[in-house]
Specification:
binds magnesium ion; seven-stranded mixed β-sheet; globular; binds adenosine-5'-diphosphate; 13 strands
């Protein structure tokens, strides 16, 4: 149809370039569409209470591998990754819809197992499953979950509000989910070589749990409320810290300094990275799937985060012209680059 326009390959654009190409320049026609593409969730409504809407798609072989992901965990994780996007707007998730496409390779019991994980997360995070869609599939399993939440207009936090001198803060620790994945992939490779060798997952519960059964940071949002702390901007970490810092800075039109020595890395993550001959800092920066919250606060609020073991100040916001930098312990500045999961590239590598 578009022969005269030529053909652009998906990998030439990457995930974010593709989204931009497909959505750039569109104007919303409804007053209630407050915020569209470009944040963790869309913001909808005209009153004092706004709705938040987000959706995620998980595809077998791209986002998960059935050979080591237990079905119940898959359901749990599929929901948690959505809720994380609602919390990233400082909102409260309330309803979800679940759509599945499934091949006859799966039994009814297998699907019930996935749903038991979804319902477990529903109970923990107090959300209701209110609908969905079901289809057959010729190529494995796909799960798409949409989450609907609410936020008071005055509490809404976007990616775009960071300003010069704000502090950059991250919850929890980074890189563990990625190391969990490395461990699972290694043991899978060993098993495929020799099926008599049973997987040796050792005592690596923490990194495995971070990969297989992540949690969304409901507690951090509740804490903001209790402390009357309103971040100036926020994003959740799905693709890796570096990628999300860049999104946040670009949306806010600012630069930043991130200090590599400040990055919170659990000792077990650190040790596993060393065992794999990887640089722990690189894993924390680019690993992805941490589902922690990255946010900025005004300097006057520093006492509200200082000393909290769940929160780490990792840098500060600068003028846009100063650029986005990672500062090493010798004060060397390196341009921050994102090597986060690019699903297109990953698929390409898998052939
Ligand atoms: P997140 O990692 O927070 O889930 P994504 O990186 O998936 O966010 O998406 C970034 C933004 O682009 C979001 O606002 C999302 O709604 C939007 N988006 C992603 N894919 C599409 C698409 N195919 N069409 C329209 N908007 C999209
Ligand atoms: Mg997000």
């Amino acid at each position: 149809m578009n022969e005269e326009k030529g053909r652009t390959e998906l990998e030439d654009l990457g995930e974010f370039g593709l989204i931009k190409r497909l959505t750039d320049g569109r104007k919303n026609v409804n007053e209630s569409s407050v915020l569209g593409v470009g944040d963790d969730a869309a913001v909808i409504g005209t009153g004092k209470k706004l709705s938040l809407l987000t959706t995620d798609l998980l595809v077998e072989g791209v986002h998960f591998d059935m050979s080591y992901v237990p079905l119940k965990h898959l359901g749990y994780k599929a929901l948690v990754v959505n809720l994380s996007d609602i919390y990233a707007m400082n909102g409260t998730p309330e309803q979800i819809t679940v759509s599945i496409a499934v091949s006859n390779r799966f039994s009814v019991e297998a699907l019930e197992e996935i749903y038991s994980g979804i319902y477990l997360a529903c109970e923990k995070y107090k959300v209701d499953l209110v609908g969905g869609d079901t289809s057959s599939s010729t190529s494995g399993l796909m799960i798409s979950i949409s989450a609907l939440g609410t936020v008071d207009k005055k509490d809404l936090v976007r990616r775009s509000g960071a300003k010069e001198h704000d502090l950059l803060v991250v919850s929890g620790d980074l890189g563990a989910a990625y190391m969990g994945l490395q461990l699972l992939e290694r043991e899978k490779a060993v098993f495929l070589e020799d099926q008599n060798i049973q997987p040796d997952l050792g005592s690596n519960d923490y990194i495995l749990e971070r990969q297989l059964k992540p949690e969304a940071r409901k507690d951090i949002i509740e804490r903001f409320k209790a402390q009357e702390l309103l971040p100036t901007s926020m994003i959740d970490i799905s693709d890796g810290l570096a990628s999300e810092v860049i999104h946040l800075c670009k949306s806010s039109n600012v630069g930043c300094h991130v200090y590599d020595e400040k990055l919170p890395i659990d000792p077990s993550t650190y040790q596993m990275a060393v065992d794999f001959n990887m640089d722990p800092t690189t894993c924390a920066l680019n690993g992805g799937e941490d589902y922690e919250l990255l946010f900025t606060i005004d300097q006057k609020d520093i006492d509200k985060v200082k000393g909290d073991p769940n929160l780490t100040i990792i840098g500060h916001i600068t003028n846009k012209e100063k650029g986005m930098y990672l500062i090493d312990k010798h004060d060397g500045a390196h341009t921050l680059t994102a090597q986060g999961w690019d699903q297109f590239l990953k698929k390409e590598l898998q052939g």
